[in-house]
Amino acid sequence: MSETTKPWILTPLLESGVLSKIAGCRIFLKLENLQPSSSFKSRGIGNMVLTSIDQHKENSSDDRPLHFFSSSGGNAGLACVTAAKSLGYKASVVVPTSTDDWTVQKLFASGASEVIIHGDSWFYADEYLRETVIPKAEERGEKGIYIHPFDRPAIWAGASTMIDELKEQMPERPDVIICSVGGGGLFSGIMQGLDRVGWGEDVQVLPVETLGADSLAQSVTNGELVTLPGITSVATSLGAIRVAEHAFREAQRPNVKPIVLDDAEACAACWRFLDDERYLVEPACGVSVALAYDGRLNHYLGKFSPETKVVIIVCGGSKISLELLNKYKKKYQESSEAAAAKYKC
To answer: What is the predicted pLDDT for the residue at 4?
Structure first.
């Protein structure tokens, strides 16, 4: 990994007294919501940016200025922009027409050189980026660097650094790690990091998705990669219709157990987590936090002791506000209570 100044930070690991009492075991929070882009994406995307810079510098015959490009209007796009800007480079983003003005303005505020709106889905925005926008940058004399949101080894390597930190912060290895899964970059990085520190076979890993964005769980169930017809969950940051092949392979390890919760459970965890820990996170993160509530850990893990150590990766995310959270609460409170009741039976 590059020795250049890293565009991510070492994040705290805190033991939560409130969630530990609720869950009946020791709950630790790895606060990736505190990263510069407000999500764990700063690690993986940041490392991919660093890797690209190093490779460009090694090619002394190419003196074109670098320009980084992302097709994500969400957390990956923000991570690309914040990482590139922090290192002194330009970054632009192509987003689909469904992207709200708030997100576009946030990308500009974070330092985007340009935000281009094109296509009615991420697929078409990404296609336009690769086939039109980057070639035009090359014609202008720039070196265009395409930043994939999750499916690159440099991204997994960046995400894996949180496990190195965890080993320093928690010398007694955890029993369980819980993480959210979209395309699989975070999950792949966690598994890579666990292997590197010697915990690869000893830690139970629970990758969590929402129903309607559960491409990993469906793939594991079917024994082959599954492409979803579309994303129907409100947790759009988990919206990869097909998980990375590498993540699918990692999920077949015996110590990995994919879990799927519904939108109501994910959203309820967001407002409860705000009350309990004063952190505002989006449903894509809330779905992991949800396992600490209402007996879900006992349901999915079976018996454990009060000393069982569970680390929740608080992956964060920027696609949330108090206004939106209140809308979720109005829509899902009744159904979330019904969902909680089934775990208490």
So the answer is: 54
Question: Residue ranges of the domains in the chain?
Answer: 13-39+152-344, 42-146
Q: Do domains 13-39+152-344 and 42-146 have the same CATH topology?
A: yes
Given this structure, which CATH class describes domain 13-39+152-344? alpha beta
Q: Mind giving me the DSSP string for 235-253?
A: -GGG--SS--HHHHHHTTS
pLDDT in tens, 144-156: 999 998 889 999 9
Kindly give, in sequence order, each residue whose CB lies less than 8 Å from that of residue 193, ignoring residues fewer than 6 positions away. Answer: 159, 160, 161, 162, 163, 164, 166
Range 225-248 average pLDDT: 91
Q: What are the φ and ψ backbone dihedral angles of 292, each rounded to 5 degrees?
A: -80, -15
Mean pLDDT calculated for residue range 213-238: 93
CATH of domain 42-146: 3.40.50.1100
pLDDT value at residue 151: 87
Write 215-219 long-range contacts (CB < 8 A, 24+): 215/240, 215/241, 215/242, 215/243, 216/181, 216/184, 216/187, 216/243, 216/247, 216/248, 216/251, 216/258, 217/258, 217/259, 217/260, 219/243, 219/248, 219/251
